[in-house]
Design brief:
Chain lengths: ~110, ~110
């Protein structure tokens, strides 16, 4: 069965650079969630989209922005990167009518040097 | 805001039963989810409780008491592959998840 696809899987950037993370949800899933997980930490909710509209907003810095496109894939744009942004970034998707279950992608490991 | 508390670490032997507790203080609470995460892996959905009571899925069961703001995950017939971190998470209306700190389960032979 198809799963959530995230790219790239690993990314190394320097401070003050920008990064774009991509997420391709499971086919027919219309809701996408982004989470940030630091080393040894729990996942922190950043933002979610339903039918290309922002649904919920969590602890997402102003330096970050995200959107969901017409094909339901989503991109997380991160600017002015800081060392503290180094983390695993997970995207999850769900169908709206069964949204209690979120299917997580493998994550993008971002390292800021 | 929401906060969820769970033990940081639990150790058990193969074949045993282990219970991971979770207490929460939340606003806009819709239900309690449980996710499993192996080191370096993605969280994987295990169970969800919207109503009080027990939900059973194979070797795993989850319980919720809304009046006590409390839930637990019960793992039976433990196997070595169950060694992982287990997170409780509160769902809001939009199914945004707020995770607890995670419980690291170590299963020993």
């Amino acid at each position: 069965a198809a799963g959530v696809i995230q790219s790239p899987r690993h990314l190394i950037k320097e401070k003050r650079e920008t990064a774009t993370l991509k997420c391709y949800p499971i086919p027919r899933h219309d809701t996408v969630y982004w989470y940030q997980q630091g080393p040894g930490q729990d996942p922190q909710f950043l933002i979610s989209f339903y039918e290309k509209m922002q649904s919920d907003k969590g602890s997402i810095p102003d330096r970050f922005s995200a959107q969901q496109f017409s094909d339901y894939h989503s991109e997380l744009n991160m600017s002015s990167l800081e060392l503290g942004d180094s983390a695993l970034y997970f995207c999850a998707s769900s169908p709206r009518d069964r949204g209690k279950v979120q299917y997580f992608g493998p994550g993008t490991r971002l390292t800021v040097t | 805001g929401q906060s969820l508390e769970q033990p940081s670490e639990v150790t058990a032997v193969e074949g045993a039963i282990v219970q991971i507790n979770c207490t929460y203080q939340t606003s806009g609470f819709y239900g309690l989810s449980w996710y499993q995460q192996h080191d370096g892996g993605a969280p994987t959905f295990l169970s969800y409780n919207a109503l009080d009571g027990l939900e059973e899925t194979g070797r795993f069961s989850s319980f919720l008491s809304r009046s006590d703001s409390y839930g637990y995950l019960l793992l039976q017939e433990l196997q070595m592959k169950d060694s992982a971190s287990y997170f409780c998470a509160a769902n809001n209306a939009g199914n945004m998840l707020t995770f607890g700190g995670g419980t690291r389960l170590m299963v020993k032979p």
